[in-house]
Amino acid sequence: MIGIVGGGLAGLSAAYRLQQAGREVRVFEANDRLGGLASTYETRGDRIEAFYHHLSKSEETIVELANELGLGDHIEWRVGENAYYVDGVAHPLDKPWEIAAYPYLSVYDKFRLAMLTLEVDVRGGVPRRDTYENLEDFEDVPIKNFLIEHTTRGVYEYFFEPLLDAKFGSRKEDVSAAWLLGRVKFRGERDLLKGEILGYIEGGFGVLVDELVETVGREHIETGAYVTNLGFAEKGDGRGPVESMTVKREGEGGEGTSETHAVDDVVVATMPDVLEGLTGYECDIDFQGSVCAVVSMDEPLMDTYWLNIADEAPFGALIEHTNFVPPERYGGEHLLYVASYVQGTDEELWQLDDEGVEELWLDGIEDMFPDFDRESVNWTLIARNPKTAPVYERGYLDMVVPYDLSKEVAPGIHYAGMASRAQYPERSLDGAIEAGYAAADRILGADY
């Protein structure tokens, strides 16, 4: 049997890949819900993800998986409209004339920004299309230095710096230019007259999780099951292959039960601190957390999907999901994500309880949108995760955890969590599936 630690998309994808190859698998998830960051809430209609998600056109693996699971016709490609809130005004930035009208960048600033997004290096007056091909060339380049050199100081200060503040906060100076270039490559195609084309699964990404669970078989998946220990064979000159895993289940009254399973291989598809606790392998990647609310309203708040914010606000971004997917899918509810990253659990936002976060954020929305009526709010649900995404600092690739840890830890140990290569230079649902596949393929390759 192959034991899989973690029931998010990476773990479920690894189980699916292995099972399709005829291997016996068992997934152990510590929480009571599957899907990880793709877990969902109920609405009057379709379910909604606790943390916002969409697809870019570059995400092909998740589309292939959806097709294999019979969900290919559920993927919808829609325009995701964007705007930038500056000095009390939301400036749409999708159509060419909207970008041309944006008042905070000069014509030359906009030209240099456009060339970067098209991956054309115009330094020296001779356009080059090969400068940005290899992201690793920019791994050790500070993002601020890169932007000032490859665009303009105005582009950095009036466009990117507020976005970096919202995304990385106090860690923004540590981020590498490779992350930014990766995002440029990662983001999908644009309709020149409408905006960016983004994908969503009809019914929500929970539909994909459900189908994976059904295909793998619910009898092969356990929730509320903590993997507390891995057992290794004895070897004279060091640790031998993994041969068992101990799983604890919480019982009523706080009492739990434990049992040990014999395993041939293990895939750890969770955060690297779990890997360290089970194997001793240390990962130096730092992670940032996030606080994310879903607000259900009777009326829409904005006329755009994604609103980046340059002004002072108690949150990093507003994402009105039902300006992307119609509110009719949710029984007429208008659904707004309010989100902020935190660089540590000691930050004031993280320390607030849910009621405090809701009050702070609704006050912030009222400040930005004077016509906002709190009476239109039906409910607010708040999700928190202390490790939502890596901090893509300089030298990140040197810290990535290998898929096959047979040399670093012991034969039979594999990793498919967020610190894997597939989640670089940006984490995504697609990356989670690729990581799960990659770990599974290492196991299957070892069989031949």
Q: Unreliable stretches, pLDDT < 50, 5 or more residues?
A: none
Q: Which secondary-structure class do the elements indicate?
A: alpha+beta
Helix content estimate: 25-40%
Largest sheet: 7 strands, mixed
Number of strands: 21
Adjacency order of strands in the biggest sheet: 8-7-17-18-19-16-20
Q: What is the mean pLDDT?
A: 94
Q: Tell me the span between the first and last alpha carbons.
A: 17 Å
Question: Shape from CA axes?
Answer: globular
Report the oligomer. Answer: single chain
CA radius of gyration is 23 Å
Treating each run of at least 4 consecutive H or I residues as one helix, how many helices?
A: 12
Percent range for β-strand residues: 25-35%
Give structural notes:
The protein is an alpha+beta fold and 448 residues long. The chain has helices at residues 9-20, 61-68, 96-101, 107-117, 143-150, 153-168, 177-186, 206-216, 272-279, 348-351, 354-368, 429-446; strands spanning 2-5, 25-29, 40-41, 48-49, 55-56, 75-80, 82-86, 89-92, 190-191, 195-201, 221-223, 225-235, 238-250, 256-262, 265-268, 287-297, 306-309, 317-320, 334-342, 377-390, 413-415. The protein has a seven-stranded mixed sheet with strand order 8-7-17-18-19-16-20. Strands 11-2-1-15-21 form a five-stranded parallel sheet, with helices on one face. Strands 5, 6, 9 and 10 form a four-stranded antiparallel sheet that branches.
Q: What does the secondary structure layout of this molecule look like, with pairings?
A:
Layout lengths: L1 E4 L3 H12 L4 E5 L10 E2 L6 E2 L5 E2 L4 H8 L6 E6 L1 E5 L2 E4 L3 H6 L5 H11 L25 H8 L2 H16 L8 H10 L3 E2 L3 E7 L4 H11 L4 E3 L1 E11 L2 E13 L5 E7 L2 E4 L3 H8 L7 E11 L8 E4 L7 E4 L13 E9 L5 H4 L2 H15 L8 E14 L22 E3 L13 H18 L2
Parallel strand pairs: 1-2, 1-15, 2-11, 7-17, 15-21
Antiparallel strand pairs: 3-4, 5-10, 6-10, 7-8, 9-10, 12-13, 13-14, 16-19, 16-20, 17-18, 18-19
Helix pairs in contact: 1-8, 1-12, 5-6, 5-7
